Amino acid sequence: MSATRAKVYALVDCNSFFCSCERLFRPDLEGKPVGVLSNNDGCFVSRTPELKALGVGMAQPYFQVKDLCQKHKVAVFSANFSLYTNISHRVMMVLSEMAPIVEVYSVDEAFLDLTGVRDVERLATTIKQEVFRKVGIPVSVGLGSSKTLAKVANQWAKSHPETTNGVMSLLDPTIREQVLGEFEVGEVWGVGRASQSKMYSLGITTAKDFRDYKNEKTIQKMFTRVGAERQRELRGEAIFELDNVSIPSQSIVCSRSFGNPVLSLDELKESVAHFASYACEKLRRQKSATQRFSVFIRSSSFIAFEQQIRSGQSINLDVPTSDTLKVIRYAMRALEKLYQAGYKYKKAGVGLYSIRSQEQYQLSLVESSDTPKSQRLMQAVDEINSKEGSGTIAAGVCFLTPKKWIMNHKNRSPRYVSGWSELRKVK
């Protein structure tokens, strides 16, 4: 019987992904500070090294550093998720050509199983070069005998580009010892701030300390079974297998705080209809349907001298649906019951629950399922909105009043790859 092959995993992580997507169509920004903001232009969610060097932190509110950004001519973009999703798909397609098993871990990260590859470090370099050549996105690659070690290697490659050139392997025992000895335990995958404080109390400050901590019962007691498994992964055991099956979201919530208080029922209806549209669009994208959803509205809890209200209603359907118009119809009925005049509403939202595959649900004698006609209509709406921008086509109730709740995206880049009207012009 042949011995079991030692596992070799690679973690491929796109560098400053959102910023790199923006630079892809703005090569003049190479080497300059670039940042991408969250929804509503709130906080920084992606920063280039040049922006980090100016002292701008992750999740830092933009208004706090607006003057600094203007002084240093920082290119600040509103989030353009349709662009990032499109580029992410292209990166993952390249990776799937180069490894038999790929786990898409997030929009900008993927684990690859490279077990059995003869010259794995050379392949890692090739992966980095091919992603850049075919898509134009810079990536870092980390290699390890477990997913946790591959994560450590990747983070090391990112933080030491001058010595690693973006590729780092922890397969060599000597190098692994050195890196783990200098790697902060708080930076280890899955170790949060609370766990970091507990580890400090045990005298564990580095990944090597964590790996070599002898009292395994204490590790399990303080950090649960997952913590103990993480320790074994640092020792080189491949505990966490690659999961190459995409798991649909089990709940989808779309909500937003209003910039200005909303007083009228029509305004609330329009906002809730927008949120229901966004949520159902996401639901159909993962080929699912919902059998229970909720609508909620509330006033600001930070203004003590004003009357407060917090209302919500859950709607159960006999048959799951992914039809936006049906969800909006039920949501409007619920909203009319929830609404009370005289309050200043600051937030509303829609949540979809009891989500299941569109192909797997029981029919009802009372309520009809989504008809082929409604399915074709939703498909056409999704295709048009995908090409021309979200909200190009929507239910009539979405256009009752001026759109106060549409997200702020004053600095959004054009939809270079998803909108015919915004394709880049070649002179």
**Terminal residue distance:** 65 Å
Based on CA atoms alone, the radius of gyration comes out at 25 Å
- The geometry reads as globular
Beta-strand content bin: 15-25%
Biggest β-sheet strands, sense, barrel? 5 strands, mixed
Mean pLDDT: 88
Number of helices: 14
Strand order of the largest sheet: 5-6-1-7-8
Which structural category do the helix and sheet elements fall into?
alpha+beta
Keywords:
427 residues, four-stranded antiparallel beta sheet, 12 strands, five-stranded mixed beta sheet, alpha+beta, single chain
Structural account:
The chain is an alpha+beta fold and 427 residues long. Helices cover 40% and strands 20% of the residues. It has helices at 17-24, 49-53, 62-71, 81-98, 120-134, 147-159, 161-164, 173-182, 193-201, 207-212, 216-234, 265-285, 324-338, 372-388; strands spanning 9-14, 34-37, 44-47, 75-77, 101-106, 109-113, 139-144, 167-169, 252-262, 288-299, 310-321, 345-357. The strands form three sheets. The protein has a five-stranded mixed sheet. A four-stranded antiparallel sheet has the order 9-12-10-11, with helices on one face. Strand 5 (101-106) and strand 6 form a beta hairpin. Helix 4 (81-98) packs antiparallel against helix 5 (120-134) and helix 12 runs antiparallel to helix 13. The mean pLDDT is 88.
